[in-house]
Amino acid sequence: MSARLIKRVLNEQHRPLEVKEEEEENQLQGEDSVSPESVSRSSINPFDLLNDDDSEPDQESEPTTSNERLRRSDDKQELPSLKYTAVASTSNLKSKKKKKKKNKDNSSSNKGRGEKELDHILESLSIDVNSSTKQHVSTKDRIANSKHQYKTVKQQSFSILQVDPKYLNAENELRRIFGSKVVKSFEGSNQAGSSRPIRGVRRGHYNLRKTVLVHPADHWPRWDGSLSMEFLETKDGYSYFRYEHTSSYSQAQKAFEAAKAINDLNGLASILLYHPYHLDSLLTMAEYFKVVGEQQMSADATAKCLYALECAWHPIFTPLQGNCQLKFSHETNKPMFTALFTHMKNLDRRGCHRSALEVCKLLLSLDSDDPMGAIFCIDYFALRAEEYAWLEKFSEDYKSDNSIWLLPNFSYSLAVCRFYLEQEALEDGCRDAKKASSTDLMKQALMLHPSVIKKLVAKVPLKDRVWTNVLKHAFFRSDQIGIPSQDHLINIYVERNYLIWRLPKLQKLLSDAAQLVLETTENNRSEVKDWACVRKEAFSSEKNEYGHLLVSDFSDSVASIPQENLQNFMGAPRMREVMQNENEMANLHGNGHVHRDVTNRSALAVLFESMLPWVTYGDGEDGGPDGHQQDNQ
Prior knowledge:
Oligomer: single chain
Shape: globular
Strand content: under 5%
Largest sheet: 3 strands, mixed
């Protein structure tokens, strides 16, 4: 029985006592007495227990309810009893009205006093927000507001680095750029060339896990569960995690270290045969395929690595929300950063800058120390993806300080960003006068990092006569500032962002700002000294703090092996078949073909030696039949 029905039954049980008291009052007033039995029979209706309304009837509905009860009384009851019941009910109404009126007056007076006291307290705690309006804030609300302000910085950093999963799919971006028909025809031609039947191999049909970072191909093997992730702790609003290896994966890692020590490409093939998702082997093969010109095979190996890493995610690991930390200091976490950085560059080469921006945001959010230098290329992807408003918001909210404006890439990129936002504002007929103009921001960037001009003129290249006159001035004559960290970051910026300066509009913006800088150097020497002080304060270290970031990692160019040395990579065609189909590689490995092809010459040794111009190659006499016997032993 519900509480509402229990309350109704209790009210009905106490009702006869109240009726007796009312009868005594009626007798004193000279009214006829009424038997309790008749009152109880006429006033109690068992069907009222089914009524859902548990509220007391108000003063206006009281007569109607009493009449309804009279009509629902027993049909065999005599007329005089009905008359007396009606008289008793009306008298009861009068007494109840008096009692309710008194109670209502008392409650209203108490309520009035309480509201006055509450208003007086709220007035003492009121805060003026605007001159025309006032908001009353209680102490509890103040505490909540203070807690909210305390967490605002972390929430802003979380929100600004949140990744939109729908933009991680590069195929969707290609469809938006080129259209669905072009992408389908291109995919069909690739599938027709790569899906050739293999003799003696029977492939099973199974469904691979759906992942967010990459979409697994049909020919990939099943996830072997060799990786897992461990939850470490929660600190300052961040959840910390670390990858863990199984015993079988640890054995494969030892085999990889042994193959790496002797530069044995054949050892990597053997590892991937039995452990197709060994991370370091996949990343090494991705680098190998890149330098030999097999870009699609390199991207496929990197995607396999990301697929394995995502399959091992912890159930509460939500990196797309920006609140998870995967510290680079843990050795088992490093393949995640390397794979994401390589995948981001592959997306950039395909022209999928929006997808590359989302991967860069994910890479930056996983470790606040930014070991891969994602902060030095996120502005480039935002500009190429035309995310101008987001870039400005990111520069304001990231780490809640303005130090990011002092970096060379953001100094110039924010000026370019403001330039495009000003063009959009002119089209819409509105302009924000509170923000600095793009010309002023570009002037500040040139005053802070003047050596960028000479590097851009040589890299883009810029061949107008204006730049010849600009470079003749002493302020822009040198391509080095003399501060190691700043010079290194400027080299990274020019290598990463020089393509956007090929647009004539941006070249005019840069030349106009350069002319203003030349006028300032002649008329206002104190301003030049002030910017020099800011430069020394921002990059105060005498050492290169960013020496671990290679300039070549931020370049679009791909290092390749000279054509005369490619013949030494006898295992390259066989390894392409290995990465395309693991079952075919198993058959080849059983016949011994892979060992004979690769062991003639160490592929990685030739790869590394080809990058050194002073190295002379031998005749390869260390291979041959004797070499095979030694390896087999």
